[in-house]
Predict the structure.
Amino acid sequence: MPSAKPIKRIAVVTHSHEAAVADAISRLERLAESKGVELTGENDGPDLAVTLGGDGSMLRAFHRFLGARVPVIGVNFGRVGFLTSIEADELEQGLERALDGDLRIVELPTLDVRIGGESWPAVNDVFATSSRLGRMVELGYAVGGEDLGVLPCDGVICSTPSGSTAYNLSNGGPVLVWGLDAMAITFVAPHSLHVRPLVVPHDLPLTVTNRTPDGSVTVIVDGMEVGKLEPGQQVDVRLGDQRSLLATLPERTFFSRYRKTFAS
């Protein structure tokens, strides 16, 4: 959906190595001053969040603004920057357009991850794998409450559309175009000739149960370990109610980035 009004207040989320974007911060500050735009804190009601980094910075910003309905636009200072909209050498031109409201806002689904009584939101993906490096695990899985069996494998990835071009893609999983309200389920090194990735809709949750007789399974949400499954324990993953808001220049579509990143 298009943005209907100019931006008056922005928050800045930087690369983890802030020194690498020090000059970019100065350039952004000068641009904001010239446009009469206030630089504000993340908790002070910004109209837009601007990241200076790569996809990792975008991921952090999405997490910080979940539930706040603050769109996030990225200036790419990373390696890939699939989620970013503006290249580093286009900072002034791109952000000036963004501040004038020349934007499209894309709503991206998140995942709700539950182990026992605890839950976590995932913007990109959930990964369940052996707690012991290099060891195979046996995972039982069910979709929408229907048992699909037990599979020996190295792990399973469940990803959102925004996360489908990350670890999921590198393991042969499907690319989910932005706008789909679906999640991809992809097994890593399955010991089977018949298991293929699945794409499931909003009303079909995934349950993964550790069926390894003598080993635990580690659950990782957006790159951070959140818990372990002992034999017989399970993790439940479903599409969540929260949405990440991706702000992008109108011509920087999913397919323009896909061509540049993966098809060239």
Remarks:
- The mean pLDDT is 93.
- The first strand starts at residue 9 and ends at 14.
- DSSP finds five helices and 17 strands in the chain.
- The first helix runs from residue 22 to 35.
